[in-house]
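Troubleshooting: if your tokenizer reports a length mismatch, compare against these two reference records.
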Amino acid sequence: MKKYILKKQVRLKHNEASDKFFAFCIETGDHFTLNKTGFTILSYLNKSKSLEEIVTILTKEMNVNEKTVLTDIVQFLELSEKNGIIAYI
């Protein structure tokens, strides 16, 4: 299975005052608004968690079946890769 990584030029931010989540590319100035789950997924990637580990964690936290979590995460990761937030190796 592919290993996903947060790109080095991407920074994750949580604005606690507004409870909003963002990913910023410091090279291009591009920024993306994230929901809490997307921010959590990217944060786990930033901590070198594998896709399998993230699926296991979120399946337990969200009380949803593993197949649904995997499908949703893969779709999010594909979109994140397309937008230059992550890469896979």
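Reference record two:
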Amino acid sequence: MKYYYKIKNNGDADIKLSKTPIEGYIYYEDGQQPEELEQALLNEVQKRKDLKISQEYLNETDWYYIRKLERNVEVPADVVTKRAELIKFIQDNTK
């Protein structure tokens, strides 16, 4: 089995393990990661961390919307703005 990769337009790495070459993918030896693959992997790790932090923020601020529904207390504008940004980030970076 050999490792093949390609870098997607968003900088993420798509890595596959195959016995035969895969069209559009670049072969690399185990333990010999090209710089672009290493950077793509680092980007993927950071993106996953950012997604986790974003989801945690949404979870921690859900109560504002429950309070709005139950007692009609407005959600602070900064919370509304940040949640909208994070929801878009999550949608853009998940499949």
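Descriptive notes for reference record two:
- The longest strand covers residues 2-7.
- The mean pLDDT is 84.
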